[in-house]
Amino acid sequence: xxxxxxxxxxxxxxxxxxxxxxxxxxxxxxxxxxxxxxxxxxxxxxxxxxxxxxxxxxxxxxxxxxxxxxxxxxxxxxxxxxxxxxxxxxxxxxxxxxxxxxxxxxxxxxxxxxxxxxxxxxxxxxxxxxxx
Length: 132
Known about the structure:
74% of the residues lie in helices and 0% in strands. By secondary structure, it is mainly α. Helix 1 runs parallel beside helix 3 and helix 3 (52-69) packs across helix 5.
């Protein structure tokens, strides 16, 4: 159940950041920072709502997935399917990464980049509606 919640969080992080950045015209950096701050403060101020694993990991997953939502609308053509798949892939990779990225600065950004690159490549190769 915890892993499912992590995947849902990563989907929400990617799609909400993209929505706030592009539809509400806040810019990618501001959208990511604002949403990540809200999620982080919520779990900092109320640590007893969920179990310890989720309280620790949900803010990290949301921040990392918000990096996916910072993608240019020219790349995903406002296609939320790309963001949805990239968010799912980010959540799966995050759940099974173990300590592979331990000691690397920017591990969340690297995971977001890997998830988005794989997703965009998949859509470019296999989709009739090509991603730009």
